[in-house]
Amino acid sequence: MRSSNLAPDVAHRINVTLPDGLKPGQFQGLFLELLETELTGKVNQQQR
Q1: Are 30 and 12 in contact (CB under 8 A)?
Q2: Contact between 30 and 15 (Cβ < 8 Å)
Q3: Distance between CA atoms of 10 and 46, rounded to whole angstroms?
Q4: HSE of 44 in the Cβ direction (CA atoms, 13 Å)?
Q5: Separation CA 17–CA 12 (nearest Å)
Q6: Which residues does 27 contact at the CB level (< 8 Å), separation at least 6?
Q7: What pLDDT is stored for residue 40 in this prediction?
């Protein structure tokens, strides 16, 4: 099993670049495996 350098109980930032041509509503989310359930209170959307 591979481990990461991410510490628990610390805010982390993930940058996601989506492919061109996605229609509104087509992106359904970001899914990560082997993590504890955590909800975010803040999601930022950056326009290109």
Answers
A1: no
A2: no
A3: 22
A4: 7
A5: 17
A6: 18
A7: 66
Where in the chain does DSSP place strands (E)? none
> For 37, how many CA atoms within 13 A lie in the half-sphere containing its CB?
0
Dihedral over Cα of 23, 43, 38, 14: its sign: positive
CA separation for the pair 4, 32 (Å, rounded): 13
In the predicted structure, residue 2 carries a pLDDT above the cut 70: no
Q: Would you state the structure tokens that stand for residue 12, as one six-digit string?
A: 């982390």
Matching residue, tokens 């950056």:
46
Q: What angle do CA 47, 13, 45 make, to 5 degrees?
A: 20
pTM: 0.38
CA 33 to chain centre: 12
